[in-house]
Amino acid sequence: MYTTCLFCNKPLGANEVVESFPVGRRLAFDSGKGRLWVVCRSCERWNLTPLEERWEAVESCERLFRGTRIRTSTENIGLARHPEGLELVRIGEPLRPEFAAWRYGDQFGRRRKRLIIFGTSVGVAWLGGVAVASSLALSGLVGGFLGGFLGTLPQGLILRWHNNKQIARFAHSDGKVRELHPAVRDTTRICPSDDEVGFAVETHMGKSPRLGWGRYLTDQREWFEGEDARRAMNAVLFLVNYGGAGREAVKHAVSSIESHKHPQQFLSDVVGDQSRYGWGGVPGWIHKMSKPTQLALEMALHEEDERRALEGELWRLEQAWREAEEIAAISDDLLLPKGIVELAGGTEENRGAD
Hints:
Elements: E1 26-30, E2 35-39, E3 46-48, H1 54-66, E4 70-73, E5 77-81, E6 87-91, H2 96-138, H3 144-165, E7 168-171, E8 177-180, E9 188-192, E10 199-204, E11 221-224, H4 227-240, H5 247-259, H6 263-272, H7 291-310, H8 314-334, H9 338-343, H10 348-353
Parallel strand pairs: 1-6
Antiparallel strand pairs: 1-2, 2-3, 4-5, 5-6, 7-8, 9-10, 10-11
């Protein structure tokens, strides 16, 4: 049983009430279609479960939902909270736009609220730091330089913590894990491809100083094709849409997909649109697309992944879960001193290549 998010590689948490599926703190389920998702509380994405025991878990969720006080409900979608703390989302028979608007509105809305809270925390930390530093300087306990340093220290620590969270990792078919930083928001483009996926992705890897006009420039570029392009694009869009969006932007994004009748058709049309130009007149830059289009791209990729899995390609989901667990383990090792990793059975390079 996998316990790590497919997208951000963070732990999904655990519950003590669904015996057949003790993973996750928010579960979404569709009894009619036998679908079960674990909603990641870190990135808010829905992880479709390919496990054989999902039917038993769905039945358990249905029983728990019926015995729990409902918090929010529409004709087709309900939200309930079990006394143990587990949140249950019951999906009935909504039209696709209704389901998408509810699902992604909740997802992107939570991201937006989290970013607002972060911005408020930075402001409060800055004001508090300035007040403390000013008091110390007036009392003669510290000099001007030290006072200025102490004043910006709380704000700097919060910003550093936030920047470290904005890192996306995905497993490449060559066995190595690629790490993407916020710079890729402005340095990624997508173009048509003749393979099954339908698009290829070019992004600038690595980090570099931020330039005066607000963009990152890096020398290390890499093209991704096939399934690697799909993995790369999911990681890039996680960073692009990290701050979420309001209800209206999500509504426009859902409408964009619906107007194309199918997520794959929307992807094809966006990739084939040569009107979005960036540096040097080259088309396909993600940062040139409107916010609703960026949101819709993430939605469409999710729905297309789920469609393929539900049409019999469950092995892709199994592989994705395994990769997520491996990336999470590698990420944990990155936080350890080199000597500790070597004592545990090998270098970081050897462990990452397994």
